[in-house]
C-alpha cells in the first residue's frame, strides 16, 4: 500500500469510526504536518458529499460518522491555516529577509519660514544657512561619510559652507544640483520665478542642470558670478554681481533689486511684509526697476518710491495694496 492509499484508507476508517488508537494518532499527525494534498482534499470532498441514501445508511450504521465529517471539515480548515503560516515562514527564510536596521536610517529635518521671517540654520558640519521668507529646506540631522546633501524645496537660501575636501556639499533645487567643497553662495528657487538663480560670493561652485538639449550641462562659477537657468527651457544666462551684498543683502534685511520686474518685486515685498500686492493692470507687472532698500524701510515708503519712479499710484484696502496708473 502506497502513501496515498494509506491516507485514503485512514480517512475512510476515521469517517466510519473504525480507527484504533494508533490509527487516530497517525491521522491527527497527518493533518498537523500538512501532508494532505489538494488532490486528496478533493477526493475527501467527494466522500463527504455522498448521496442521501448512502448518507442515511451511514448515519444508521455509525451514529457518530456525520459528526466526524463536520469535525473533519474543521480540521481541514486548521490544516490550511497551518500550511499558509508554514509557507509564509518558509518564504521569508528562503529569501533571507532581515529586519530593517533603524540605526542606518537617516533622519531629516524640514525647516519652513513664513512671510516676513528669516531663519538661521546651523548644520551638523558647522555650515550656516540663512533661509529667506516663504521658503522650505530639508536636511539630514547627520551627514553621511561621503556627501553632504540638502534640499531647497522652495524659496531662497544663502549658504556659508564649512570646508571639507573629502565631503562635497550639494544643494538640490528641483533638477539643479549646486556642489561645493567650502564656499559661500546664494540660491533663489521661488515658484513664482521663471528661473533658478545661483550667485557666488566666495570660493568655487559647480552647477549641474538639464540644458536645452536635455543633456546635463555643468557650469563652474567663481566669486562675483551669477547663473540663471530657465525652469522650462533650461536656457542658461550668465551675469555678474557688483558686490557680495547683492547676493546676501537680504540676510540682514536689505532688499536689492537689480533690473527686476515689478511683478517679481511685488512677490518679494509680499513675502517680506506679509501683505498682498496686486496690479490694476497686468502690464504694470512688466515694468523694471533697480533699487536698494534697507531693513528699516517701511512697506508704504517702498511702495511710494516704486510709484514715483514709474509714474504710478497705489490704493490700500484690507491687507492688500494695488498699484495702478495715474
Notable characteristics:
326 residues, 13-stranded mixed β-sheet, 32% helix, FecR, transmembrane helix, membrane, Phage tail protein beta-alpha-beta fold, FecR_C, Jelly Rolls, alpha+beta, 3 domains, 3-stranded mixed β-sheet
Question: Can you describe what's shown?
Answer:
By secondary structure, the chain is of the alpha+beta class. It has three domains: 3-94; 101-248, Jelly Rolls, CATH 2.60.120.1440; 253-326, Phage tail protein beta-alpha-beta fold (3-Layer(bab) Sandwich), CATH 3.55.50.30. It has helices at residues 3-15, 21-32, 38-48, 52-61, 65-94, 244-248, 262-273, 299-310; strands at 108-112, 119-122, 128-131, 136-140, 148-160, 169-173, 176-180, 184-189, 195-202, 205-210, 216-221, 225-230, 236-240, 255-261, 276-279, 288-293, 312-317, 320-325. The termini are far apart.
Question: How would you concisely characterize the structure shown here?
Answer:
By secondary structure, this protein is α+β, with helices and mostly antiparallel strands. The chain has helices at residues 3-15, 21-32, 38-48, 52-61, 65-94, 244-248, 262-273, 299-310, and strands spanning 108-112, 119-122, 128-131, 136-140, 148-160, 169-173, 176-180, 184-189, 195-202, 205-210, 216-221, 225-230, 236-240, 255-261, 276-279, 288-293, 312-317, 320-325. Helix 1 packs across helix 2 (21-32).
Amino acid at each position: 500500500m502506497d502513501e496515498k492509499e494509506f491516507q485514503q484508507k485512514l480517512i475512510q476508517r476515521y469517517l466510519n469510526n473504525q480507527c484504533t488508537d494508533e490509527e487516530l494518532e497517525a491521522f491527527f499527525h497527518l493533518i498537523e504536518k500538512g501532508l494532505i494534498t489538494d488532490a486528496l482534499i478533493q477526493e475527501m470532498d467527494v466522500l463527504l458529499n455522498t448521496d442521501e441514501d448512502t448518507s442515511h445508511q451511514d448515519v444508521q450504521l455509525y451514529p457518530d460518522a456525520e459528526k466526524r465529517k463536520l469535525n473533519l471539515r474543521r480540521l481541514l480548515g486548521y490544516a490550511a491555516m497551518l500550511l499558509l503560516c508554514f509557507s509564509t515562514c518558509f518564504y521569508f527564510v528562503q529569501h533571507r529577509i532581515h529586519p530593517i536596521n533603524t540605526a542606518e536610517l537617516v533622519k531629516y529635518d524640514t525647516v519652513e519660514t513664513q512671510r516676513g521671517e528669516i531663519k538661521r540654520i546651523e548644520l551638523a558640519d558647522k555650515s550656516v544657512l540663512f533661509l529667506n521668507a516663504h521658503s522650505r529646506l530639508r536636511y539630514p540631522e547627520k551627514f553621511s561619510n561621503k556627501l553632504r546633501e540638502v534640499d531647497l524645496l522652495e524659496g531662497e537660501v544663502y549658504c556659508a559652507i564649512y570646508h571639507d575636501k573629502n565631503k562635497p556639499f550639494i544643494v538640490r533645487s528641483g533638477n539643479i544640483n549646486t556642489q561645493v567643497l567650502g564656499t559661500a553662495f546664494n540660491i533663489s528657487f521661488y515658484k513664482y520665478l521663471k528661473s533658478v538663480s545661483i550667485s557666488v560670493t566666495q570660493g568655487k561652485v559647480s552647477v549641474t542642470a538639464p540644458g536645452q538639449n536635455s543633456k546635463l550641462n555643468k557650469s563652474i562659477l567663481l566669486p562675483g558670478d551669477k547663473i540663471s537657468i530657465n525652469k522650462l527651457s533650461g536656457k542658461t544666462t550668465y551675469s555678474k554681481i557688483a558686490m557680495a551684498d547683492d547676493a546676501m543683502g537680504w540676510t540682514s534685511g536689505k532688499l536689492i533689486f537689480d533690473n527686476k520686474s515689478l511683478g517679481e518685486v511685488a512677490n518679494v515685498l509680499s513675502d517680506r511684509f506679509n501683505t498682498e500686492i496686486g496690479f490694476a493692470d497686468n502690464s504694470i507687472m512688466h515694468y523694471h526697476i533697480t533699487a536698494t532698500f534697507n531693513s528699516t524701510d517701511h512697506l508704504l515708503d517702498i511702495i511710494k518710491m516704486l510709484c514715483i519712479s514709474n509714474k504710478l499710484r497705489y490704493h490700500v484696502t484690507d491687507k492688500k495694496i494695488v498699484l495702478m496708473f495715474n
